Amino acid sequence: MKRGYFFTFEGIDGSGKSTQLKRVADSLQAKGLRCLVTREPGGTPVSERIREILLSPDNKDKIYPNTECLLYMASRAQHVCEVIAPAFHRGEIVLCDRFEQATFAYQGYGRGLDIGLLRNINQFATGGLIPDITFIFDVSVELSQERLSSSGKGRDRLESESTQFFTKVRQGYLSAAEANPQKIVLLDGSRNIEELTEQVLNVLYEYIGM
């Protein structure tokens, strides 16, 4: 059976990655392509329960960085085994809102945990499954905060972090893109929504041979 494809969408909170993922999924499905849309943390009943713990504002300042890391990895392990890997092996296109690069940026650069250790734990959690391409939508921390403030919804535990934290997370994403340009596509998240969608689709279509 032909393998599928696995594409991930990343960026600091307010980067527009989730909007782009939905637009790309709609375009792929309109062409009759089998497409699975999922997210992290989450994607399965167990993983969604872990998401509630991780993002609840009630847990602000109550979760230690190493605990946070392991909860994310536990959610990912369940997610890969139950949803992502089966869809991939069925030949579907999997689009995931956040994956391993979020761990390296948020828990690595943001929390200061050892990147090498995070890679090893991630390898265990994913069974070695890695994205074909990761799209990182880069915006300034200032624009990120403006978008979060104008969204009209309350901020979750991660969204409530400091400007300094998000500055470090953003640097983590930029460093990843610079280190691995073959696998990571860095996009200017402040650009026009339609233009960004077209950029992503052009990369995807070329990769899957359309």
Task: Write a structural description.
The protein is an alpha/beta fold. The chain has one domain (5-208): Rossmann fold (3-Layer(aba) Sandwich). Helix content is 55%, strand content 13%. The protein is built from 8 helices and 5 strands. Strands 2-3-1-4-5 form a 5-stranded parallel β-sheet, sandwiched between helices. α1 packs across α8 and α2 (45-55) runs antiparallel to α3 (65-89). The protein is globular, with a radius of gyration of 16 Å. The two termini are 19 Å apart. The mean pLDDT is 96.
Structural class computed from helices and strand pairing: alpha/beta
What is the number of beta strands?
5
CATH superfamily (homologous) name = P-loop containing nucleotide triphosphate hydrolases
Rg, rounded, reads: 16 Å
What string gives the helices and strands in order? EHEHHEHHEHHEH
CATH level-1 class: Alpha Beta
Task: Summarize it.
The chain has 210 residues and is α/β, with parallel strands linked by helices. The chain has helices spanning 17-30, 45-55, 65-89, 100-110, 115-126, 141-150, 163-179, 193-208; strands at 5-10, 35-39, 93-97, 133-138, 184-188.
Task: Indicate the topology.
Blueprint (H helix, E strand, L loop, with lengths): L4 E6 L6 H14 L4 E5 L5 H11 L9 H25 L3 E5 L2 H11 L4 H12 L6 E6 L2 H10 L12 H17 L4 E5 L4 H16 L2
Parallel strand pairs: 1-3, 1-4, 2-3, 4-5
Helix pairs in contact: 1-8, 2-3, 3-5, 4-5, 4-7
